[in-house]
Design brief:
The protein is α+β, with helices and mostly antiparallel strands. It has ten helices and seven strands. The radius of gyration is 21 Å and the shape is globular.
Length: about 270
């Protein structure tokens, strides 16, 4: 890279303790200014539709870091995709469980309801709208793919798209044609479903307010990425949900403050 010397100098000069004051400062304290500008700044603006200095740093810790050139983003021992995709996997998991779809209200019995939809919707948006980001996908057949070792390639400098994915690589298929999917981050609306909580300070404050509000209810426990307004990967979303099971039995008998502190305690683990 032409900027190599400057990058090495900035890496040398990094502070011993990262600067957690906001996302941009945090990233610069880890990557140095030049790498930050090349790989993170534009990507962040496209991804979140927010200025990087408006975002908090907490969600990025353990998620975005400096790695050597041959390491991968995820380092879990077990990685992959179900052979027939997730829809089939979940269909099989719930096939013997009676499910009622499109219910417009909760029933009145004593059951506790786990709610995996968006937290602000659950409270009828009474304190305002929580920002969620969504993605739009554009598929191209047999488009250019630079490196067959990687299923997803980030596009930090592209003016529109944040990244592209190659399904032949992701599914380890040896096919002549390849489907390349370009991903563009967009605001949530009726068509674009909420996918990512946007970690600004304002949203964080609003989330706490909503969680306290939900904890007044004996009946409902919010769960998952949308319900808890937390940027969770799949393994963490599942692990947290399993932990939340321990709350179901006692939820009705707890006071609102106790519900909130039990939930916060679990959330802080992730
Ligand atoms: C584009 C993209 C790529 C990702 N890639 C990875 C990856 O590579 N690895 C990884 O580990 N994780 C990845 N994730 C994250 C992963 O998808 C989430 O961690 C996981 O889906 C969270 O599970 P969840 O149950 O919390 O929420 P969700 O999977 O979002 O499930 C919430 C469910 O609630 C339903 N719902 C919403 N509102 C209502 C309502 N009002 N009433 C009833 N139902 C409702 C929704 O339809 C949905 O089925 C990715 C996410 C996205 C968006």
């Amino acid at each position: 890279m032409p900027e190599k010397n400057q990058i090495l100098k900035e890496l040398e000069e990094r502070p011993t303790e990262p600067n957690y004051s906001h996302f941009e400062n945090y990233m610069i304290s880890i990557f140095g200014k030049t790498l930050y500008m090349l790989f993170i700044h534009n990507y962040t603006k496209k991804m979140w539709g927010s200025e990087p200095n408006e975002l908090t740093s907490n969600w990025a810790i353990n998620r975005i870091g400096l790695k050597s050139s041959n390491s991968k983003v995820f380092e879990g021992e077990w990685q992959g995709l179900p052979i027939e995709g997730y829809t089939k996997l979940f269909e099989n998991m719930v096939k013997d469980i009676p499910i009622e779809y499109n219910c417009k209200s909760f029933n009145n019995n004593d059951d506790v309801v786990l709610f995996s939809g968006r937290l602000d919707e659950l409270c009828k948006y009474k304190f305002g709208v929580l920002g969620y980001r969504s993605l739009e996908f554009k598929n191209k057949l047999n488009d250019e793919w630079e490196n067959g070792d990687f299923g997803t390639i980030n596009l930090p400098q592209n003016p529109i798209y944040i990244r592209k994915a190659n399904f032949n690589v992701l599914y380890q298929q040896d096919k002549q044609d390849s489907l390349i999917q370009y991903q563009k981050a967009v605001p949530t609306d009726d068509f674009n479903k909420p996918m990512y909580p946007i970690n600004t300070k304002e949203n964080f404050k609003l989330k706490i307010r909503y969680l306290k509000e939900v904890c007044k209810s004996k009946k409902i426990i919010p769960v998952g990425r949308l319900g808890l307004y937390k940027y969770l990967n799949m393994d963490k979303a599942i692990s947290l949900s399993i932990d939340i099971l321990s709350l179901i039995e006692k939820w009705r008998n707890l006071r609102p403050k106790e519900r909130y502190s039990s939930l916060s305690l679990l959330l802080n683990k992730f």
